[in-house]
Design a protein that fits this description.
6-stranded mixed β-sheet; about 40% helix; alpha/beta; about 300 residues; 8 helices; 4-stranded parallel β-sheet; P-phosphate_BS
């Protein structure tokens, strides 16, 4: 490590490791992008830093101002620690059924956390964020409409995957939440090779998987372009949970349920091809979910 580097310099360049036990199909290889190795513990460090940094550079926000954002967890943790380092105050709004670890982590970083009723979900948290922006004058980054979200992955995540697979990637698989990761990586990879297949993981009807969503029409992220996703694979809550446990038991990869969902979908794709190099995003670390029933 170079002298003078900061914690923010450690965002990105996460490891790409091969799954050696979950799959044993000749000609098909599966790699896992370990985003839990970011300093804030998730893939959301990338867009959180890019949204704040670019807004500061443009003069859209100034040091000392208060930001407000709705989050299901990981984006909030990233915004909490990055905003403090960059001289900003942070108010985070999230559903009350979010895991205790996430809420306590955000508060440890110095953010104010407001919990909204679980029955109105993240949509209700988003509505309150807009209300506070309008009534209190807080700055809303709005990760669901902010182009600096997906551009973080266009600038870094996509190029890292292209580099580390030595340009041989054939399939990219990602959970779809805010859709920033899949949008940015798809945009970059398609520029390099239009034949790379982009696969989005989506929850089956009736399934609740933190980090993977099937948005109602009014709440679909504004920057999401369905044309940038070649294939959508559905995963049930039980399938995502089972694969998350297998990741820990068989690959030593301790992650959250959205990662189990993306890897489940990657293995479904692997069953249908004879040759390929697949990369699945491991969104965060499993220690965010120890107070939940995920690992019981």
């Amino acid at each position: 490590m170079a002298y003078g580097s900061t914690i923010l310099d450690q965002i990105g360049n996460t490891p790409l490791v091969e799954a050696t036990h979950l799959i044993s199909k000749e000609g098909v290889r599966l790699f896992l992008k370990l985003e839990g190795n970011n300093p804030g513990g998730s893939v959301k460090d990338r867009p959180a830093f890019n949204m704040i940094n670019e807004a500061l550079k443009r003069g859209d926000i100034k040091k000392g101002e208060t930001l407000v954002e709705a989050t299901s967890g990981n984006t909030g943790i990233a915004l909490a620690f990055i905003s403090k380092l960059l001289g900003l105050n942070m108010i985070l709004i999230m559903p009350e059924n979010s895991t205790e670890e996430r809420v306590k982590t955000m508060r440890a970083y110095g953010a104010e956390v407001i919990l909204t009723p679980s029955d109105i979900g993240i949509e209700g948290s988003r509505d309150l964020a807009f209300k506070l922006r309008d009534e209190k004058g807080y700055v809303l980054l709005n990760q669901f409409e902010n182009d600096d979200n997906w551009k973080a992955h266009y600038k870094a995540t996509g190029p890292e995957i292209w580099r580390d697979t030595e340009h041989e990637i054939t399939h990219f698989v990602s959970a779809m939440g805010t859709t920033g990761t899949i949008t940015g990586v798809s945009t970059f990879l398609k520029e390099k090779n239009k034949n790379v297949t982009i696969v989005g993981a989506q929850p089956a009807d009736g399934s609740r998987i933190p980090g993977i969503r099937k948005w109602s029409p009014d709440y679909v992220p504004k920057f999401f372009d369905r044309n940038k996703v070649d294939q959508v694979v559905e995963v049930t809550e039980n399938e995502a949970k089972a694969m998350t446990k297998r990741l820990a038991n068989e690959e030593g990869v301790f992650a959250g349920m959205s990662s189990g969902g993306s890897v489940f979908c990657a293995l479904k794709v692997a069953e249908s091809i004879d040759k390929g190099v697949l990369v699945a995003i491991i969104c965060d670390r499993g220690d965010r979910y120890l107070s939940s029933s995920l690992f019981e």
